Each structure stands twice: as structure tokens, then as C-alpha cells.
Amino acid sequence: MMDFSNARSEVRTHPMSRYQALTAAAAATTYLLIVAGAVVRVSGSGLGCPDWPLCHGGFVPPPDVAAIIEFSHRFIAGADSLLIVGVVALTVASHRNEPRLMAPGILAPLLLAGQIVLGAVTVLLELPPYVVLVHLAFAMAILGLLVWMSVHASGRLAVGAPNLDDGDRFVRWTAVAMALAFVLAMTGALVRASGASWACIGFPACNGELAPFGRNVLTDLQLAHRFMAYATAGVLFVVLVSGWRRRAGYPGLDKASVALGVTLGAQLLIGAAAVSSDLPAVLRGLHVAGAAAVWCSAVAVFSVASRGHRLVEGVAAPRPLFTREAAGS
Ligand code: HEM
What we know:
With about 325 residues, the protein is mainly alpha-helical. It has helices spanning about 5-10, 20-40, 65-95, 100-125, 130-150, 170-195, 215-245, 255-275, 280-305, 325-329. The chain starts with a helix and ends with a helix.
């Protein structure tokens, strides 16, 4: 295997631009908002402010824990909306000839508008579980768009490396891994929305059996979530190892791969601990935070990979992990 460590010194980094800082701040605030949303749910504070957009008829919450928790979620949502509007304005002002930024720059505010309406409906209809599920899906989608934008806002490819993402097997695998991470999160949200959270107790067994499929729908739903988590973890692991091996050719892939490895490991542990200890509220909240972190990392790996890799003069690209020859050997 070729030693790429020397190649790294050739990669020039750019100071973080105002635009990149803004997209990164919006992504971080959206992540915080998802965690705050989980705290609202697991603390049962969803109706802490029974009216919308005011809280008990006022602009500030009364001295009540549930009202303060719900109000904080709305406050962060307000700050995040302003940041996203700022990102869109700067994208239109200085990046409108870059489809990689313009497309998500148009989609993000549309999803945000839908999210605000969903947020109001969630409260006014007293938290219908499937509306909460769609609310989480929109939040994850907005987060994904902002992570993509903050990676592509870096302009680290300005050094003119050829963009080789079409047909690049590795990039396709990172896209598959990213899609699996999103679908997995939605199966988890379905477990919660359908009331299947307690349908399987214990780990690795479910109610004392390894895979008691076919007993009832709720057990099947949670088992499906668990087994999809194991399969997705397998694909994410292969992708992050492949990413790590290619790190010298893709600026930033080392950090994204490590983040994916750490968040994936933590999330699996949190899931296992949650079902082994009767789903305490703190682990249910951490499970949402972990799922959003795995999603962010999977999007970051895909975004960095699709930004193209830099062929370093005289150094061959790493042998792809997934080749027919490799399968034959
Ligand atoms: C990478 C792995 C995993 C991801 C990304 C993931 C993601 C999620 C998400 C997004 C939710 C919905 C939370 C909500 O809507 O509030 C969820 C719920 C759930 N997950 Fe996972 N999960 C993973 C692994 C696991 C594992 C390994 C287990 C158990 C062995 C598990 C058990 C559960 C349970 C019981 C719920 C319902 C929790 C509740 O009602 O608050 N998950 N998961």
C-alpha cells in the first residue's frame, strides 16, 4: 500500500470564509435544535406552551419547567431560522453560479417553511405521533443540507484538482451509506410514533429471544429497526474504513471518517443500553442526539467524497475496496 503521509503536505488549506462559518453555524444550531426537540419530547414538555406562537399568551414563558423547555426549543428554532435565511441570502448573493450550493440553498428554506407549519400543527393538534415523525424527518433533511453546504462552502478544491465523482465507486458507496442512515433514523422514529418502544425489552435478545419476528406488529417494528441498525452499521463501517484509507486524497475525509466511527459506536451502545434499562428518558434523548450525529457524519463523508479527490502528482490513487478483481482474489 502506498504511503500517502507525505502527500498531505501538498494540500493547501484556506482560512474559513464568512460564508463557510455561517453554514457551519446554521448546521450546528440545527443539530442543537434536534436535541432540544428530543429533550422536549422525553421530558413531556411538548405542551409546556399550549398556544402558538406565544407561550401562555406571552412572549416569555411563565416560571414553569415544561414551559421553559418548550420555549427554549422555539427560541433555538427562531435563531436557526435566522441563520438559515442568512445562508440563503449569502448563497444567492455570492454563489448563485454554483449549483452544489444553490440547489440546497433553495431547498433548505422551503423545508424550513414546512417545518414551521409542522411545528405549529404538532402543538395545536396536541402532538400527533406521526406529525412528530415527519417533523423529525424535515429536521434531519435540513441538517443534512446544511452539512453538505458547509463542506462545499470550504472551497478547498480551489487548487484545481479534477472532480472525479461521476462513476466513482467510493462516492456511490458513501451515498448509499448516507441514505441508509436516514432511512434507519426514520425506522426509529416509526418505532417511537407507533408505540413500539417497549415492545422489545433486553439486548441483544428481544423479550428473551434473538429474533421473535411474527409475534406482533410492534415487536416486528422494533426488531426491524434493530436489525436495520446492525446492517447499516456494517455498511457505514466498511465506508469509513475505505474513507480512512483514502484520506490523503480527500481533504477532510480523515476527520469525517473518524466522526462517523465514533458516533456510530456511541449510538449502538446508547440503543443497546436504552432497551436494557427500560428506556430511561435521558437515554431516549441521547438516542435522538446520537442518531442526528450519525446522520451528520454520514452526510459529511459523502459531501467530502463528492467534492472530488486530488490526484497527487506521481502517487497512484488507492486501490478501490469494491472491485470485481478484489472479489475474485
Ligand atoms: C446507528 C444506529 C441507530 C440509529 C441511527 C437509530 C436511530 C433512532 C431514531 C432516530 C429513533 C427515533 C427517536 C425519536 O423519534 O425520538 C430511534 C428510536 C429507537 N431506537 Fe434506535 N437507532 C439505532 C440503533 C438502535 C439500536 C441498536 C437499538 C436497540 C438495540 C435501538 C432501539 C430503539 C428504540 C427502542 C427506539 C424508540 C425510543 C423512544 O421511543 O424514544 N436503536 N432510533
